[in-house]
Predict the 3D structure of the following.
Amino acid sequence: MALRKIVSVPEPVLRRKAHKVTDFNKDFQTLVNDMVETLRDAPGVGLAAPQIGISLRLFVMEFGDEEDENIPKKLYVFANPEIIQASEEKVIGTEACLSVPDLAGDVERHTWLVVKGQNKQGKVVKYRFEGWIARIFQHEYDHLDGILFTDKAEKVWQSRPEETEEIRD
Ligand code: ZN
């Protein structure tokens, strides 16, 4: 495994619509492993392939609280994700992004989602996400269409990296 370099704005790949994942081969497995390692090293809670300069519809997210058994830490890999259903209800929360250094912002997102995608092996997976994990999913999903949280934020402000470590996607 190897760490990949995280690219930042205004890198053009962050603004492109990413391509579908078609091969779940050995190179893909290496890419996913590297993304997980890069996410943990950052550290962050989500990382999309365009953020390491690769225009593929792929992201990883890892969220949970080691001290709270109600939210065990879990790793998700999503290739070719889709949002099947989204709540009408929306909620505002603070986000930051590994590719948008030193900024944070308040973004309105769906409260819950039903999503599907393919895992590391290419198997179709389906989940219902609610709360913070639903927010992370929406942030990462936007990356695959070249959208950044600052495009949707109602308010953006300067923030020190240590303040945003918990919320960076
Ligand atoms: Zn991001």
